[in-house]
Amino acid sequence: MGSRGSHAALIPDVDSIRRETGFSQASLLRLYHRFRALDRNKKGYLSRMDLQQIGALAVNPLGDRIIDSFFPDGSQRLDFSGFVRVLAHFRPIDDDTGVRDPKQPEPLNSRMNKLRFAFQLYDLDQDGKISRHEMLQVLRLMVGVQVTEEQLESITDRTVQEADEDGDGAVSFLEFTKSLEKMDIEQKMSIRILK
Amino acid sequence: MLRAALALLGLPLAGAGAAEEPTQEPESRGEPPPGLALFRWQWHEVEAPYLVALWILVASLAKIVFHLSRKVTSLVPESCLLILLGLVLGGIVLAVAKKAEYQLEPGTFFLFLLPPIVLDSGYFMPSRLFFDNLGAILTYAVVGTLWNAFTTGAALWGLQQAGLVAPRVQAGLLDFLLFGSLISAVDPVAVLAVFEEVHVNETLFIIVFGESLLNDAVTVVLYKVCNSFVEMGSANVQATDYLKGVASLFVVSLGGAAVGLVFAFLLALTTRFTKRVRIIEPLLVFLLAYAAYLTAEMASLSAILAVTMCGLGCKKYVEANISHKSRTAVKYTMKTLASCAETVIFMLLGISAVDSSKWAWDSGLVLGTLFFILFFRALGVVLQTWMLNQFRLVPLDKIDQVVMSYGGLRGAVAFALVILLDKTKVPAKDYFVATTIVVVFFTVIVQGLTIKPLVKWLKVKRSEHHKPTLNQELHEHTFDHILAAVEDVVGHHGYHYWRDRWEQFDKKYLSQLLMRRSAYRIRDQIWDVYYRLNIRDAISFVDQGGHVLSSTGLTLPSMPSRNSVAETSVTNLLRESGSGACLDLQVIDTVRSGRDREDAVMHHLLCGGLYKPRRRYKASCSRHFISEDAQERQDKEIFQQNMKRRLESFKSTKHNICFTKNKPRTRKAGRKKDGVANAEATNGKPPRDLGFQDTAAVILTVESEEEDESDSSETEKEDDEGIIFVARATSEVLQEGKFSGSLEICPSPRIIPPSPTCAEKELPWKSGQGDLAVYVSSETTKIVPVDMQTGWNQSMSSLESLASPPCTQAPTLTRLPPHPLGTEESQAPLELSSDPRPSFAFPPSLAKAGRSRSESSADISQQQELQPLMGHKGHTHLSPGTANSHWCIQFNRGGRL
């Protein structure tokens, strides 16, 4: 695909995508290549199947959820701008964030948006809260088989209680961010090559 | 543990003996006794080990003395003090013996003193942090060290060519390069000693420290290559020799790492099968790690790298395999050995410096070296950081670079290497020795002294120690998986990709092979955090009863949402968790709903590790097994001590509380003591219940003087049944779960009949276990401090209720239970028959306060115990300020039978 993809101009809507995501030209080009490579039948969009066929993703405990997050609102097609928009969450935070914030909406790679991305992986029913049940499901994926169901439940309880501040038995986004206050999200949710 | 220590300590004796032999010889040559002597002086036979032991003793005593003054140790790093002490001791020895006696012998240093330090640092290396920064560490270790060595050597040679170094220093370019190679390496011992006290942020620490560990390979190679070049003579060095030198860098470093990993594998595999011989587990760890060191040394590979990799690689599996006690033993032995070795090293460094016969001074060389190592270190760091920052997600900023340059301490490794030089081949050895000593002293003393103020002044990000929470652990794992997934999607096989791969490989094969089946659980990090949190809660609960309350208070806010399940759960709880011994420390807090049942079960599991519920009389004095009894006795002792302490503090609080009435006070105290005696004599129950009775006493005292007389008998009774009282409290609480929404008011204290209470009958775990009393009664510690405040309120309310029927002040917020529990009612009529039950207030706002409180330290909690006494307003709402009092079980005297 060398000659076809070698120019950024070939990417549809390249300017608006760049503005929205903040990716550099080179990164966009690389991502576009990747997008085309994933798109097996050259149909111009990605389907769930395309992503599911990435080998390593299949063994990732959160793989399905992450794939789902590429397809918001139950859509079945993922175009390039959607693809890039999700990945933009993992762009490292720029040093000069303070300068351009006021007039533009928060950039996709802000701390809040990074956290929100993680949050919606937990929040399956998208009611803005991680319920105990949702937490249990995640923990089951993460902890693995060695721990019995009962122990898992008690871990879940403790986890929810730890973060739950208003006593509703669920973790809201606010509580979620609070529980991660001390963590360096900017670092832990960024990938260097996505500049 | 002792054996392990002996094995390692015993070994140095042979080597060290030779070094210290010549001393005090005259004494040992006593005339041989002609016949049977009653008394024989055999100094000579014990001399070597005796001296080693004495040195270590002196060093340890010196450490104790240093730490007597907080001011000194906070300003001056221990390593500086030790070096100075060594200088003084060396001076004394020199003055007495007229010649310098003791030396830091390279053999002793490399074979015995260095390995424990390196093992300690490798084993306790935060592996995640290490691998996260592996790129930077490797760059600094390899490129940085090479750079330092060559530039310093070359610059010194230039200095000599310029005539600034006296011509009597006979050294060519190769000699200077050799010197540069040994002086360039940042020393792990010195760095660790200084940086551990400075507390810079983790990333900075791991980079400096990791560098100092990994650069050993480079130093060893450079030193050996240069040394052999010098020995061959520069004329005979062929081009292939240079190539060999480069190749040996890879051989030495990769070979060392490989040896370490092989031994790590062996170690992990061995510990998998030690289930029946737990006692040798710690020994295995030390032996195999030491074997790794010696093997690498034998093959002239990088021994430091080998031990580092061994410790780093085996830790995860070993920790999972060995028993809890062995883990503690390993940890402490390792720390003890390392700190011991470190102390001796610094002291011997100081002593060695006194020996002026070994060194010759040249100001140009010394000053030049000092300047060059500082300058090129800084320059190297800046250049490398600039390069690294092109690739790093989080760039290292200027302040980091300053600390990194300034933290390049040289130490005993350089000294030992310079002593090892062959004087016949390196004529300038004496000058090099002097320069090395000065450099080491300068970096350790001057830089060590100033780095702390510097770090403060530059406002370097300090390490913030925060306890892990389950949420953080879980989310961190999530982030890892997310990043790995995103790398997959992007199609970039980066760091996260490979880490993910490794983890899967580890899970599938390595862990299966190297871990006990039963150990899988511990291996899971989320589980591990959960386990540790619970253990911590349990321990701090035992340590400070009132204090823990707040940490378990975490569970409180979630209560209301579970009202619906509460009913079934209580019965479940009674039925099921009763099957085992319920010494659930958190039973009051956690056991409220069906779901919390598991929590309780879990706690039993966990607490089982702490307090053995069953008595096991094992008359064993086996050397190979530590008897259970010892453990149990220890537990009991801890309890008793805690309780005594608490008793003390409550006495004082009591005095506080009834400061208005001094009349009953003294009498109460006396009677209470009687009560203690009674309780112990009659029931054989430990005196811990006292805490609870104390509150009762407090309540009484505050109430009124008229009542005092009549109450005394009742108190006496309670004294006999203190534990049961507590058990009731627990069971009441169980049933109170459903009122959790309600605030306030609590009535219904009853006098408990002398023997088996309903609680004991109904709750299987309450009876038939004498031991249990101990644990259950520990609940009192939790309740008591709260009750100091409760007592106050309560006395007020009970004064009112004397006139009126109990519970006239029904709380506005009290929610009545949906319907009474049939089963419970029949089972425990006594408890439920009385109308209003104790209830508690859990304002949601407390959760936060509770959490922060849980992190506070022990002495704060002491204050907290007193807190409720002051400034508590009525019994309406509890402010976060009195968070530890949010567990109010109030006993309304009016409700008594």
Automatic annotation (TrEMBL), chain A:
Q: What sequence ranges are listed for the domain EF-hand?
A: 26-61, 110-145, 151-186
Question: Which keywords label this protein?
Answer: Calcium, Cell membrane, Cytoplasm, Lipoprotein, Membrane, Metal-binding, Myristate, Nucleus, Phosphoprotein, Protein transport, Repeat, Transport
Q: Which GO terms describe its molecular function?
A: calcium ion binding
- List where in the cell it is found: Cell membrane; Cytoplasm; Nucleus
Q: Which residues form a coiled coil?
A: none
Q: Which GO terms describe its cellular component?
A: cytosol; nucleolus; nucleoplasm; plasma membrane
Instruction: Please name the SUPFAM superfamilies in this protein's record.
Output: EF-hand (SSF47473)
Pfam families per UniProt: EF-hand_5, EF-hand_7
Primary location class: membrane
Which superkingdom, per the lineage? Answer: Eukaryota
Q: Which GO terms describe its biological process?
A: cellular response to calcium ion; positive regulation of calcineurin-NFAT signaling cascade; positive regulation of cell population proliferation; positive regulation of protein import into nucleus; positive regulation of transcription by RNA polymerase II; protein transport
Regarding protein family, the annotation reads: Belongs to the calcineurin regulatory subunit family. CHP subfamily.
Q: What is this protein's record name?
A: Calcineurin like EF-hand protein 2
Source organism: Ictidomys tridecemlineatus
